[in-house]
Design a protein that fits this description.
Blueprint: H1 17-28, H2 30-36, H3 42-48, H4 55-81, H5 84-103, H6 107-135, H7 138-152, H8 154-169, H9 174-193, H10 208-219, H11 222-252, H12 257-281, H13 287-310, H14 316-342, H15 349-373, H16 380-403
């Protein structure tokens, strides 16, 4: 496909790379904020909606479903209509649906609005990666993706604390009014600061059948699939951490809510810091080599945690060190694998980004469900899931290196 390899072109009004990273990172943070900010409110939500255990977790699953479906739709929309219009429309839907969450009278309506907010918010998770592919490739793309993580990564550091602060001074619904305000800020940001990066001449006009064929072609492209699987498996491990960290650090290690929030933030900081080291290292090494190193570190860290968990060690540091190391390794895996996967996708970069995003949340949903179902008040489900995903990431990276030596 000729246009799949078309080189990126910098639009004439494009802001600096630093400003672009700030804009795109802020848009991408919609997902982490929407997930992490209301985690402290789970007990309050369950109490208001009937007190049945699992209600709050079900609303999180509803959000994941909406994200997975929404990303599949947002990719073709971004490839057909450009980047700005779908971002504006998606941010508007996210804002209105999040207001619906703040007003929802019961768990079913709340879950429905969570699905709708995810459908809209998925634009901010898919399209920024396509914008990166529009304006950069190779080392430059991986470096820009690492800078995005610096902005986006602030979300999981700040979100639980912001949610806890909102709960301390107001009802849990205030969290969703704050998220709606963030949605409005995203609309303003796109309107003012993000020019269109996909020229009309490079846009696709696929029919519904053509969209399906495009996704099938991308899945059949090993240059996309091999690195994408490494990245998605890495984020499967991250979702396992989100689902299992409370049992590991609060029930087993005995941390209270404040201590857990601090540790959650420190682990997110390790992820962000590693991504910035990756951006620096890209001036001295290739994305493919750094990806290999990141995957190796992921495997070693996950297996170390598995050993600690099954040895029934409960000291917080014994658990925290391998967890932080595993998350830091993902700061190398994610940007480099994504840049390699999108490198040859050209005008279908939006669809490829959407497919990777759907795969990521599909892996995440499976990971989170497995950890929740196997929860036993220990770190073993988290450790087992991290180890399994690390081996999947390793297998995908070995495929990339053996079958696709130039990727």
């Amino acid at each position: 496909m000729a246009d799949a390899a078309a080189p990126p072109t910098m639009p004439p009004a494009m802001p600096s790379r630093a400003r672009l990273a700030l804009v795109l990172g802020s848009l991408t943070a919609v997902g982490p904020l929407s997930i992490d900010m209301y985690l402290p409110a789970f007990p309050a939500i369950e109490a208001e909606f009937g007190g049945r255990p699992g209600i709050a977790q079900a609303t999180l699953a509803a959000f994941f479903i909406g994200i997975a479906i929404g990303q599949l739709a947002q990719g073709p929309l971004a490839d057909r209509f450009g980047r700005r219009m779908p971002l504006l429309a998606g941010s508007l839907l996210y804002t209105l649906a999040t207001m619906g969450c703040a007003l929802a009278p019961g768990p079913w309506s709340f879950s429905l609005f969570r699905v709708l907010s995810a459908l809209g918010g998925s634009a901010g998770m898919v399209i920024p990666r396509a914008v990166v592919r529009d304006v950069a490739e190779g080392h430059a793309a991986a470096r820009l993706l690492s800078r995005l993580l610096l902005v986006m990564g602030a979300a999981p550091i700040l979100a639980p604390s912001l949610g806890a602060l909102a709960l301390a001074v107001a009802h849990w619904r205030m969290i969703f009014w704050l998220l709606a305000l963030y949605g409005l800020a995203c609309i303003a940001l796109v309107w003012v600061a993000l020019p269109e990066t996909l020229p009309a001449g490079r846009r696709r006009r696929d029919s519904p059948a053509g969209i399906v064929l495009t996704y099938a072609a991308i899945l059949g492209d090993g240059s996309f699939l091999a690195p994408a699987l490494s990245a998605c498996a890495g984020f499967g491990g991250m979702f396992a951490y989100i689902a299992g960290s409370a049992d590991a650090f609060m029930r087993l290690a005995g941390l209270d809510e404040r201590q857990f929030a601090v540790l959650f933030g420190l682990n997110a900081a390790a992820f962000i810091a590693a991504a910035q080291v990756n951006a620096w290292a890209l001036g001295r090494s290739s994305p493919a080599r750094l990806l290999g190193w990141g995957v190796a570190a992921f495997v070693v860290s996950a297996l170390a945690l598995l050993a600690v968990a099954f040895a029934r060690v409960s000291h917080p540091l014994a658990l925290a060190v391998p967890v932080a190391s595993a998350l830091a390794s993902l700061g190398f895996v994610g940007p480099n694998a994504t840049a390699l996967g999108l490198a040859r996708q050209g005008a279908r970069a939006g669809s490829a980004s959407a497919l990777q995003g759907t795969m990521t949340f599909g892996f995440g949903a499976v990971s989170g469900a497995a950890v929740s179902l196997l929860a036993d008040g220990t770190a073993r489900p988290l450790a087992a899931a991290l180890a399994a995903w690390s081996l999947v990431s390793l297998g995908a990276d070995r495929w990339r290196r053996r079958r696709l030596p130039r990727v």
